[in-house]
């Protein structure tokens, strides 16, 4: 089982690396904080004997001088720890950028940082990453995708001032390459890129938002469309949910339309759940999954992987709603009523037992409600 140490574990890329390591069943990575990096002895102790050391920490935005100095300083600190390590890591991997050496303060600093690490580890894996996008990226910081998604989720519209072509790689694919994970669904260690203009990207995401506003699922013809849609959904959660459904009734009874998918199908199934029983306790890396309670009462609980906060949605068959599970959030549904619960589930892909994209992870119990204040 691969043992990994990571700098920059709290960042966008670092979080996705830790989620993928968990999905692979690897031990929780050793996290090197910026405070750790100030002490070479601490670095040497913490990285000793690991199979793979990933240097993800960096400075991406801010004053140009600090961006330049910060990236070089972090690499030099890690290099000093490597020099003192009694049992060096099996591999050292640097999350570099395709902008390295392009004449900008950021690009030149990334090139210097790579050279600094290579001077200590000539076998350095210098991985030059393009524009990364994915769930829970920071708008106005990590990528234009995150910025457009946040604007749309809040009811705004993207504005395009510089329509240039981008190469976009989903962050899980980059994490797979950094970790040395085997290629295969739902990630691809070959890091397949999507070439798209900024204006076309804005139009695509705007179309997603317009279709999904009422809970309809847009046409998702390929893996990048699915991942871009999942990225948009991450900015909608939890404020967008639950989505109310329209009930139609006549003398025969009632009808509720739970899923409308543009250009695709997927798989729909129903289950009954005994009182107090729980279904779920897992997360997905790419799969879309929708819950709709048709009879009985339940609570849907979700927790972002690596976080402690549990989000709860009480739901009932008396007032049908849908809740879509965000990728990389552990989730379950528990029957809170006295009778059997009837739930409809939909996923965007037919279940494949060989590649299920279902990773065990308990949600845990929600935090207790605060006690009411006492009068007087």
TrEMBL record:
Chain positions covered by the region annotation Disordered: 355-376
Domain NAD-dependent epimerase/dehydratase: 5-176
Domain named Capsular polysaccharide assembling protein CapF C-terminal: residues: 249-359
Ranges of biased composition (kind: Pro residues): 363-376
Transmembrane segments: none
Top-level lineage group: Bacteria
Xref: InterPro entries: CapF_C (IPR029303), Epimerase_deHydtase (IPR001509), Lipid_A_modif_metabolic_enz (IPR050177), NAD(P)-bd_dom_sf (IPR036291), RmlC-like_jellyroll (IPR014710), RmlC_Cupin_sf (IPR011051)
Gene3D superfamilies recorded: Jelly Rolls, NAD(P)-binding Rossmann-like Domain
Protein name per UniProt: UDP-2-acetamido-2,6-beta-L-arabino-hexul-4-ose reductase
Provenance organism: Micromonospora inyonensis
């Amino acid at each position: 089982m691969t043992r990994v140490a990571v700098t920059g574990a709290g960042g966008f890329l670092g979080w996705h690396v830790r989620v993928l390591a968990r999905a692979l069943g690897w031990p929780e990575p050793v996290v090197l904080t910026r405070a750790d990096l100030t002490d070479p002895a601490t670095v040497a102790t913490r990285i000793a004997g690991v199979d793979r050391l990933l240097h993800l920490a960096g400075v991406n935005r801010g004053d140009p001088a600090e961006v330049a100095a910060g990236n070089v300083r972090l690499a030099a600190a890690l290099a000093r720890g490597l020099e003192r390590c009694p049992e060096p890591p099996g591999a050292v991997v640097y999350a570099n950028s395709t902008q390295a050496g392009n004449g900008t303060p950021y690009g030149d600093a990334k090139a210097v940082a790579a050279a600094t690490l290579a001077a200590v580890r000539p076998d350095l894996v210098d991985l030059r990453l393009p524009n990364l996008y994915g769930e829970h990226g920071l708008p106005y910081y990590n990528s234009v995708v995150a910025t457009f998604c946040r604007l749309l989720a809040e009811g705004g519209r993207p504005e395009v001032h510089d329509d240039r072509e981008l190469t976009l790689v989903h962050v899980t694919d980059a994490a797979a390459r950094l970790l040395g994970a085997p290629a295969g669904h739902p990630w691809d260690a070959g890091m397949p890129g999507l070439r798209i203009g900024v204006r076309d990207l804005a139009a695509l995401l705007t179309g997603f938002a317009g279709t999904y506003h009422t809970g309809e699922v847009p046409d998702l013809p390929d893996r990048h469309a699915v991942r871009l849609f999942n990225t948009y959904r991450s900015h909608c959660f939890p404020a967008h949910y639950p989505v109310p459904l329209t009930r139609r009734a006549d003398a025969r009874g009632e009808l509720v339309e739970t899923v409308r998918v543009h250009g695709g199908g997927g798989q729909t199934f129903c289950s009954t759940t005994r009182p107090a029983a729980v279904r779920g306790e897992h997360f997905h890396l790419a799969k879309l999954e929708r819950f709709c309670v048709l009879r009985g009462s339940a609570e849907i609980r979700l927790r972002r992987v690596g976080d402690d906060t549990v989000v709860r949605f009480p739901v009932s068959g008396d007032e049908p709603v849908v809740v879509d599970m965000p990728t990389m959030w552990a989730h379950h549904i528990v029957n809170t009523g006295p009778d059997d619960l009837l739930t409809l589930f939909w996923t965007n892909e037919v279940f494949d037992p060989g590649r299920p994209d279902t990773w065990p992870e308990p949600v845990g119990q929600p935090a207790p409600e605060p006690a009411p204040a006492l009068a007087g």
